[in-house]
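Repro:
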Amino acid sequence: MRFTHSGTAPRNRNDWQTLKTLMPYLMAFKWRMGAALSCLILAKVANVWVPLYLKNIIDRLSLPATAMMLPVAALIGYGIARLAASLLGEMRDAVFARVIQGAVRRVARSVFEHLLRLSLAFHLTRQTGGMSRDIDRGTKGIGFVLNFTVFNILPTLFEIALVTGILLARYQGAFALVTLGTIVLYIVFTLVVTEWRTVFRRSMNDLDSRANARAVDALLNYETVKYFNNERFEAERYDTNLAAWEASATKNQVSLSMLNAGQGAIIAIGVTLIMTMAARGVVRHEMSVGDVVLVSAYLTQLYAPLNFLGFVYREIKHSLADMERMFDILKSDAEVSDRPGAQILATTSARLDFEGVDFSYDPKRQILHRVDLHVPAGKTLAVVGTSGAGKSTLARLLFRFYDVSGGRLALNGVDVRDMTQDSLRAHIGIVPQDTVLFNDTIYYNIAYGRPDAAREDVLDAARSAHIHDFVQGLPDGYDTMVGERGLKLSGGEKQRVAIARALLKNPPILIFDEATSALDSRTEKAIQHELAEISANRTTLVIAHRLSTIVDADQIAVLDGGRVIESGTHRELVERDGRYAEMWRLQQQGESAVEAGW
């Protein structure tokens, strides 16, 4: 089997738009930002005064021995300036820490909440591993951008302006011109080369996310990989992505070395020119030794952070790329959203009406065709049919994971699209066919149906679902961890947890989507009695494969190819001798064969 990789370059970015998206999260801390910037400015002013005091000390100490005296004022000023620069820098860091961490927290929460609001269609087309990596890098990128913008770029630029002004005021314009020219050349070179290198980093991120998504997908489907003996196949797929990442990472490092070499050459030339000019001034008696020390100190103060500025700029560009990927998630629109002025549903009695409902996941393939179904309040409707007939789609439409393509789905005569999704879903409980549990305790997974429920209510729900005795027999009882997606429990145990969770929610509408398909016959019969009791006064939609579980339903609808081909009670449908009667006979023969030991 061949593996291919398309190494297309990512689309052009808009860094200003990314920063604009970040700004509202920062404005919540505007007073702290103002205080941090004030500390920054004062710290740099104090830092610039340090070389001036140092020059004064050197010049005083360079006088003939007969005139020499200890420059106490200059020494005290030097010490105060250094202390002030240090203390103000630490104050800036302490004040700004809350801004960084607070912004990261707010952004992470916004992205998480937005992901939960997005429709099921979005999540079915995304790979969780890659998306989680994008979010992780994006939130870390925020901290990096804020830290180094406030703590490195802004202070360095401000200090460059101060030093340039001092050099212009005290010495020949050539000193300021060479200093400023070197800095400008350094910055331009860094910007140009970094822009060229950005494509390598972004390609690395894409390939890293892809490799991570591939690994997570394989690990989540660990049993399937083992069933088909495909460990080598999965390892090769993973390694193919890693190989592409390796090539991109190598290009990234080589280009980084080229950038560092160029930056080093520019700084070396600039320092050599400045020191040559200063030395010539001393020889000509135009400058003192203190002036040479002053110029040298300023160069050290400027070029040290400026050298780091190249790294910071590169990382900021990379962080902005990471942030852009994360913010792109916020730009994803939910296919299903609340209409303006949507009603908040509040009822204990619910009537359901599917009125000429059409639906398709893909425009090329329609799933439901003019479906008409009616469930009076407190009654039970069972839907049966072959796989792919559209049975589970009815439940997804009721939850508004999708909206109908045509017709109307009404609750108490009101279109569900005119209700808020939160209030609608609060009125529905479901036991799905494929039960997925959180990697937490059994208690947590049952209590998830109503997180604020009392412990005794959780235990009562477990008893009604016939899982209490099983849980009590476990070494850790209700504190037993169920593992990733509940894999430590059997299918039947997971389904009983799901039943308990739905019972605890206690909603007016219940959906049982093959709710007992993973249970043995004995447990199924016991739970069927409980389900019949709890659904007695609730509007219930039962999606079933075993017809024996729905013989007491108030109404049974047979779906075939997305159309209702029959409906009525069990007795009526058997007497009609149509599709339902045929399915009933086949299942009865199968059960008789099992009982006879065939």
